[in-house]
Specification:
Blueprint lengths: L6 H22 L11 H22 L11 H22 L21 H16 L8 H19 L13 H22 L6 H22 L1
Helix pairs in contact: 1-2, 1-6, 1-7, 2-3, 3-4, 4-5, 5-6
Length: 222
């Protein structure tokens, strides 16, 4: 167990960073086939999935209702549903049969539902990595890496599903989870940025979002 005055600022900043990146992905995948290949329907499913994940970040970061802890049933369902929608959109866009990634194994834990988002994230990583081969979009490699890191965070969170920041003492697993998720969101930001290099306006928006995260961390720490 670890005590730290940065526990709450760290938690809030990671959730806020995740919200900005996931919400940005929800907007950009609708018009960027380099992020999610295929038809508009595929990109729409993925966009909806990222929107659900972003909403989950807001609810969890603000400790609303049944979203306070990482093991909260409502949060697990929201994350699993959002990632499943991203997986559906990616599978449809790449035309890869679900059986091709069915061999990805789940961790054996006492409460399997807690790690369900991590399992779906690994499936997305496997599909994205396969889709980036050959002439596939190379940006999918960043999506795959981000999903692997996100899955690591979810598995770490499953080791302390009842951890709640602001109570004075937080388990090491909770810090590992937030560290892995923060890295995942940064990789996702790189994935989103790969489709906006030609847009100066979008690059300004992303720079402003990065500055906003730094300001939020500073204010929360103070």
């Amino acid at each position: 167990m670890v005590e730290s005055f940065l526990a709450v600022p760290l938690h809030f900043t990671v959730e806020f960073l995740g919200f900005l990146v996931l919400a940005g992905a929800a907007v950009l995948v609708l018009s960027r086939s380099s992020l999610i290949p295929g038809t508009a329907a595929n990109r729409g499913a993925a966009a909806l999935g990222f929107a659900v994940l972003a909403a989950g970040q807001v609810a969890h970061g603000g400790s609303f209702g049944h979203f306070e802890t990482d093991g909260a049933g409502a949060l697990v369902v929201a994350r699993t549903a959002g990632l499943a929608l991203v997986l559906i959109g990616l599978l449809g866009g790449l035309r890869i049969a679900p059986a091709a990634v069915a061999a990805v194994a789940a961790w054996q834990i006492d409460d399997p539902k807690v790690v369900a988002p991590g399992v779906v994230a690994l499936l997305i990583a496997a599909v994205a990595a396969g889709g980036s081969r050959g002439r596939g979009p190379k940006a999918l490699r960043l999506l795959a890496l981000g999903m692997v890191l996100y899955a690591v965070g979810q598995v770490a969170g499953a080791a302390a599903p009842g951890a709640q920041f602001g109570a004075g003492v937080v388990s090491v697993a909770a810090y590992v989870e937030h560290g892995a998720e923060a890295l995942a969101y940064l990789v996702f930001a790189g994935w989103v940025r790969s489709a906006t290099r030609a847009s100066i306006r979008t690059r300004f928006v992303m720079a402003f979002a990065a500055l906003l995260v730094v300001v939020v961390l500073a204010l929360a720490s103070a």
